[in-house]
């Protein structure tokens, strides 16, 4: 099968930062689906892996989002059958989705929304799982609750922020404040449903005071190291903070006087460690799929870059690296 990957860690501008090559068909395990990939999306994790980790042996296939059609099932598969249309975010310990075919554990796969094409559907899984787990597990919010409390989403215009705003508004009573710093990103987070927008390049403390809001929950999705002191200042005592980025150091003892709780969200943890509740991701993706088909959630895809090729994938990586990407960039399958 055809696949796109990389051999050497480095910048996307390197001549062979991404290459197309012929790969063996992936083996299908007992719980696996073999999926013909019809659409993919690009996430920050694609860039981080490509920039910072040289493959130990040969060429590594990237890609952590896909939508496609099941062509084969493993012996213990019970949730899907051949011909089903699916979407999922994959497993960081296995080869990725930038290929014609991909093997994935059925327990982290959801039914593709019927109302979306494959490329657009591929824009949802990783960010939806991340946002769902962050909101309901890392921050500890419960569905139907949160009235009178505020959630601050730092970096609201990215892929995770775009779906997190929507989940918080549709499934909880939280007041949602999102940060954005440009006219296009401000417009985007308003479209996603944010109640208020503040600029993270200015004093968030002062802006929240002017709104007479003190968040109990903070989702720090980008630039945590630079915003951490402000987060400690602006949050309520006994508040909750969740991160998805990788600050090298954080002085979390600064949160002790307010008795704050801190948590990291990493959506690959369940698949990486084969947790007892791994099938939770199948269930939440099905919920997201239903919400999309019922028009409760709107698309977070901002750009379809066309058919998956080395050139279009390089473009998607470059846009992700720029730090100016809004929502999700997606591509059609590699055929």
UniProtKB/TrEMBL annotation:
Entry annotated with the keyword Ion transport: no
Ranges for domain Enoyl reductase (ER): 13-331
UniProt-listed InterPro entries: ADH-like_C (IPR013149), ADH-like_N (IPR013154), ADH_Zn_typ-1 (IPR014182), ER (IPR020843), GroES-like_sf (IPR011032), NAD(P)-bd_dom_sf (IPR036291), Quin_OxRdtase/zeta-crystal_CS (IPR002364), Zinc-ADH_QOR/CCCR (IPR051603)
PROSITE patterns according to UniProt: QOR_ZETA_CRYSTAL (PS01162)
Alphabetical UniProt keywords: Acetylation, Cytoplasm, Metal-binding, NADP, Oxidoreductase, RNA-binding, Zinc
One CC-aspect GO term: cytoplasm
A single GO molecular function term of this UniProt record: zinc ion binding
Cellular compartment(s): Cytoplasm
Keyword Acetylation tagged: yes
Source species, domain of life: Bacteria
Family affiliation: Belongs to the zinc-containing alcohol dehydrogenase family. Quinone oxidoreductase subfamily.
Record-linked NCBIfam families: adh_fam_1 (TIGR02817)
Subunit structure: Homotetramer.
Protein name: Zinc-type alcohol dehydrogenase-like protein
